[in-house]
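Supplementary Data S3. Sequence and structure tokens for construct A.
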Amino acid sequence: MRERGYDAALVDELLLRLTAEKLLNDERYLANFIAYRAARGQGPLRVRAQLRGKGLIGEPVEQALEAFPDWIAALNQARRKKFGALPPANYQQRMREARFLGYRGFTSTQIRTALGSAVDLDE
């Protein structure tokens, strides 16, 4: 609002009032942002990058990402939506799914957990 020419003192007062009335809460915003993105099949790496793009970095972001209850469930949901309920039939299919999940922002550990330890993402 300051960038748009509003009085800085008025903006500061407004932010303090909104925070005091619990209408503005950074932790709640982070939790909702992460839950929404995870429900859309995005992993923690991608969500962290999106938050960084919005100027949100640091310990609160890391705590909110760690507090998300189940990244593996989000990964499995994204995998099932793209590839179906059956597990990958062969190594080539497993690697295709692993690449997709990596692009979606899931960590290699999460992908190995979901697809099996035979996936080598470091190649």
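Construct B, processed identically:
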Amino acid sequence: MKATVCFFLVVGLALFGYGFAQAGSDEGPPTLTASGPDTLDKKATVILSGSGFTPGQEINLVFTAADDMQSDIGYALKEAPKVDANGNWNAAWECYDFIRRKMVKAGGSYKITATDSQYVPLAHTMITFNK
């Protein structure tokens, strides 16, 4: 088990660097920001945005829970992220399913990673659910 985890960690880190080298603009690596939600109820929505991505690039978003379990949150987005000609995109994550299943708790901080179509990490951010 530990060997498998180490293997994926090493491969992931190698691909992480490759993803930054392949992404976006001459201004540096892509960035990802997250804001919200205001409440932890059925209307809970996190607004995600990125900049510095390759125009037209397919973006997947991966949530990492407190127990390090990862989940592609594409099914819970109002619309798939579409990178515009300037390398920017926005998405709204309706996260109530994660709240209901207790994967997200008030006061908890969680990682969200933007990846390419092959799940190579391009950028990540942390979000804290305060209420």
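The helical segments are 2-22, 96-100. The beta strands are 31-35, 45-51, 60-64, 70-72, 89-94, 109-115, 121-128.
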